[in-house]
Amino acid sequence: MIDFYQIRSPLSQTTEEHMGNYIRLLEEKLGESFRRVDLEQYLQGEFALLYVASGGSEGFFLEIFERLKVRHCYILTSGESNSLAASMEILSYLRKHGGSGEILHGDIDEIAEQIRILRNAHRALSGLQGKRLGCIGAPSEWLIASDYSPEIVKEKLGLGFISISMEELLAQIAKNRYESNQYTELLKAQDFDQDEIEKALYIYGAFQRLVDQYQLCGVSVRCFDLLDSVHSTGCLGLSILNSLGVYGGCEGDMPTLLSMTVLGSITGEPLFMCNPSRFDTKEGCATFAHCTVPVTMLKSFRLNTHFESGIGAAVQGTFEEGDCTLFKCEGDLSRYFVKEGSILDTPFSPMLCRTQVKVRLNDFSYFLTNPINNHHIICRGKHGSEVDAFFRLLEKA
Length: 397
Known about the structure:
The chain has 14 helices and 17 strands.
């Protein structure tokens, strides 16, 4: 349901029936119902439109301006009856007198897409309120630039952080148990050392119990410590968490876990935390790789060992070709990178992490001159406009 508050001049030739037809056309394009609300409902709504239905509406806007300027106004126009001209006058006044807003204008498909993107940004931000991320152990020593600001993130997103010791994780792993689900069964059915799979699933069980105990929507773990302590890795456990919709990151990299959480809330897509590994500037392609991909992103997979250690179990996956989005944000949300690309191939080199994906990007200047650390996030589909809208909303919040 999308709410809108309507203003128009009584002298307008635009009839209620004509305005209703316009709203119904938007409903058809979006596949959602619109609801006309009064001023109080408009002001209290999480996301609502100000529909300027005709020219001559400016005077009515002035009557309610002092109340409207407390929120960012999404001004809907019809492209008829001087609706756009009135909207431009209203937006100019709004900006000159301490308010903010933007006009939604274009053909009906463009307007519907604008509304979808903006409403999705509001929904994503609202969905993060009160959620928590956990860091198991300290970040790995090589993450020298991957700092984050829990206070700023809490203020902007309503998202909290908690720290969990490695000792607590190890105590959970020592219980040697996990709850079966479709992904544990899928992994156990693979042609791989069953003892190694079982050991990896005990680690998954430990992750899941900590997620449940602390009510986390995501967790990152200092995973390399597991190589010596339990002679296994967290790769399968994190893959299962991500397949289940719990954001799972490795190396205690909290800015990357934050990036996963933001992108996941915006897109609802499964996510691949990965390293940029190779750039081919002639072909305009980049190869990304890591060992924790969720199986829900893949068309097929097999199990292999963890790359750096050669032990444990990790997913070696194959991707469908198609559109993708690459994303990363700073740990204080002060900067972000988003770029749409296309998955071209799933190569394999024994000198890289087990799941590898080749993506057409063309421009590599960001990575080579001003990157946001090493790990980045890939999801399927084109979501650059949605990410941009989310961060514009953060600036206004």
